[in-house]
Every structure is written in structure tokens, then in C-alpha cells.
Design brief:
Blueprint lengths: L1 H4 L3 H66 L4 H11 L3 H12 L1 H9 L4 E5 L15 E8 L2 H11 L5 E2 L31 E5 L12 E7 L8 H11 E12 L8 H18 L7 H7 L3 E8 L4 E7 L2
Parallel strand pairs: 1-2, 1-5, 2-4, 3-4, 5-6
Antiparallel strand pairs: 6-8, 7-8
Helix pairs in contact: 2-8, 3-8
Amino acid sequence: KKKKKQSSPKQMSANAVTKEKRKKRHAAPEKTQTRQPAKQPDIMAGRLLKVAVGVAVYAAGTAGGLLWYQAKQVGEVSDAHRCGKWLELAPVYDNHVDKAEHSLGITRQRHRLIEKARGDCLEVAAGTARNIGFYTSQCTRLVLTDRSPTMVKVATNASGHTPMTEASPSGPAQRGSSDQTHNTKDTGSSSHFDPEAVELSVADVTELPYRDGEFDTVVDTFGLCSFDNPVAALKEMARVCKPDGQILLLEHGRPSELWNLPVALWVDVRAPCHAKDWGCWWNRDIVGIVEASGLRIVSKKTSQAGTVIAIEAKPS
């Protein structure tokens, strides 16, 4: 009886193979059922990603083509055209830029820069006197100049003063800066500087009618983009600034950071259109211009994706 109950090695091997086949037969459908649902989302996500990339490339190419076409249509913008643009913009300039400067934080940046002015102060390319409300009692004297008589006239009406000097050399009128308002409501600050001490004059920034080392502080906001020769302008600012004085700059220009390359390309493509509409080249290398003038940069800070830069410098 014991011999009958025992299985032969062949039977045991056959039974083991049968069991393995049964396991595989039952396991195969489970693997198929678990894999198929996992693959479906992956396939859909990949397709959606390809569609999104294609749409983005198409949109970027179309937008770039339109910008390039607009720039080509504008053509070259002459210095005479830019100078004439400021005669046209002067009466309405403040209304055009007030809201934009406030929303972008430019007004706050003006205030932070101008409050550092001290002693005898000269502001070149003062435009419509947009910074006049930000000077403090640290200033013992304040002179605002601009090459454009129209800009000076608007600044005169805004401040209630009359031009004290007319030192502009003969030549076409041109503004040196694109901005400034005596409006302090945006920052909540009040100026302690006596407005009666303000001097307004028409003067070319490359031929300032002042002595060497006459001022403790020289200010320029958004002017380097508009000067025909920005390096010469900075050298003239350094001449009238005391050796231990300071030169305060707030400018817009081309971003230099690698991660800002898309913004830099956009600024370059739009530069001719902007120069035609506003009279300034907003894609200049501001740091390179300052270094070329021989000024020593003490500090610099960028904002607005690298398109706005505040610089504190000293004469070399």
C-alpha cells in the first residue's frame, strides 16, 4: 500500500510543471491588466506636451516675425527726429508716464535715489522736473537743466519759477532725460527742500556752463538713453562734480544677464520703434557706457528684468 501511494519522480516533475503553468496562466492576465491603465496617461501626457511645445514655438516665431517686420518698417531713426519728438511730447509727457511709473515702481526708485543727494546739487536732463519733490533738506542748492527749452518751460510752469539762465549752445533743441515729476503722493514722502531755491536753466549736458568741481551731487534719471554722446555727457558731469562728490544715475538699458536673454532680444528688436515714438534708445549698455566714461561705480542695482539700473558713482 505504501508503494502505491508514493509518486514516481516523473509524476512529481510533471505535477510541478503543471503548477507553474497554472501560476503563469493566472498571473499573465493580472500583469496585462495592471500595465495597460498605467500606459494610457503617459501616452496622453506626452502627446499634450508635444502639442504645447509646438504651439509655443509657433506663437514665438509669429510674434518675433511681426516685431522684426515692424522694426524694418521703421528704418533708421535720426537724432534730429528724436530731438523733435521731445518738442512734441513735452506738454503731455507727464500724463503719459505717471500711471506706468507708479505701477512699475519707478516713482519709488526715483525717490530712493534722489533722497541721497546732498550739498550743491545739479540735475541734468531734468525734463519736466519729475524729481523735484524728492530732494530733501540735505540739498543746499538745486540746479535743474535740460537742453530742450520746451521741457524747461513745462518744468517752469510746474514749479512756478522762471528760468534763471539761458546757457544753451546754438543748435537743435534736444532733451536729455525722459522723466521727472514733483509728485510725492506715490511714495508718501514730503520734501523739506525749499522750492524757492531751485534754479532752472537751458543747457547742453556736454557743455555745462559751470566751473570744475562746483557741485557735490550730479543727478541724471533716464537720460543716457537720449544723449547723442552719452560717454561725453558723463565726462562733463564728472568735470562739474567735486572729486569727493557723487553722481547718481537711474537709467534703462539692455539686460546683460544671460537668463535675461529673451528680454534683451525683445528690447533690441523693439528699439527702433521705441526711439521713433519716445526719442530714446532703450537698449544701450549702461554699465559699459559708465565704465567707458572713466567713472568709478560704487554700487549698482537692477530691476524690471534687468532693464532698469540704479548706479552710484564717483569721479575717477
